[in-house]
Design goal:
Blueprint lengths: L2 E2 L2 E2 L29 E3 L5 E3 L7 E5 L4 E2 L6 E2 L4 E5 L18 E13 L5 E10 L2 E9 L8 E12 L6 E9 L5 E3 L9 E6 L3
Antiparallel strand pairs: 1-2, 3-4, 5-8, 5-15, 6-14, 7-13, 9-12, 9-14, 9-15, 10-11, 10-13
Length: about 200
């Protein structure tokens, strides 16, 4: 340290006096995890940058699924387009069981049709949490039976506990005529799909 007279005097450093790369993470006194995935905040703490919309999944029904009239039936969306955490069962239960707690945006659609025109009374899509309906939408044609092919969509935000909560997609079709009732498969005009992703909070 230089002296002026007989007293040491500090000379302030400018940005040009500190060589690039000479201060490492270990030299910083801020609290929190110091690594390449965090940033230094104004309150002298490290925080994670951003977040991820995971777990997330999206699955479709690969081919038409035959269903019964006036019967709530689970859509067997068996083709995974996305499943970040292997949280969707596309082979047995056709359900999403994320192991991370939080709020999830959930969406589903079912294309319901019969082989007879102007015969559908009611088409209903529901998303169930742990077996109970939590989201619901319907097309009601009971005044004139005008439906034949119907795409009913349903979506919303659902809290999940991250351990045992699960979601499933169901549909119902009520008809007054026809012998074939089905959910539409991939590639059809009334295709069926189911998905969800975690919201960054």
């Amino acid at each position: 340290m230089p002296f002026i007279g007989n007293k040491p005097t500090a000379i302030p450093l400018s940005g040009d006096d500190i060589q690039d790369g000479t201060i490492g993470l270990a030299d910083l006194s801020a609290t929190g995890t110091k690594d390449a995935t965090t940033f230094l905040r104004g309150d002298n703490t490290f925080a994670s940058a951003g977040g991820a919309n995971t777990p997330a999944f999206f699955a479709t029904l690969s081919s038409t699924q035959t269903v019964s009239n006036e019967t709530s039936t689970k859509a067997q969306c068996n083709t995974e387009i996305l499943d970040t955490d292997s949280a969707y069962d596309n082979a047995t239960n056709y359900r999403f069981t994320p192991q991370v707690a939080g709020k999830y945006f959930v969406f589903g659609q079912i294309g319901m049709s019969t082989n007879t025109n102007n015969s559908v009374q009611l088409a209903v899509t529901t998303i169930k949490k742990n077996g109970s309906t939590i989201l619901y939408n319907q097309f009601d044609f009971r005044t004139n039976y005008a439906g034949q092919q119907n795409m009913v969509m349903c979506h919303g935000i659902i809290d999940m506990n991250g351990s045992s909560d699960y979601l499933e997609l169901f549909g119902e079709i009520y008809v007054v005529a026809g012998s074939t009732y089905q959910f539409g498969g991939s590639g059809s005009n009334n295709s069926t799909s189911f998905g969800a992703y975690k919201i960054i909070e």
